[in-house]
Amino acid sequence: MSALTDQLPALLGVLLGTSGTILATGIADRSRWQRQQAARWDERRLQAYVEFANAVTRDR
Description:
Oligomer: single chain
């Protein structure tokens, strides 16, 4: 039993490090996805403005 208690701090350190890595990766991935979605939305909005301007100038 003493062997387990001797190795417990190392095991807890590994579990804590793994949990921290998973959490940090998840946050970074979510942030990257949000930035990509915002860029896509900006491109779509710009395209809609261009199409609207073309439609308005054609009708005149």
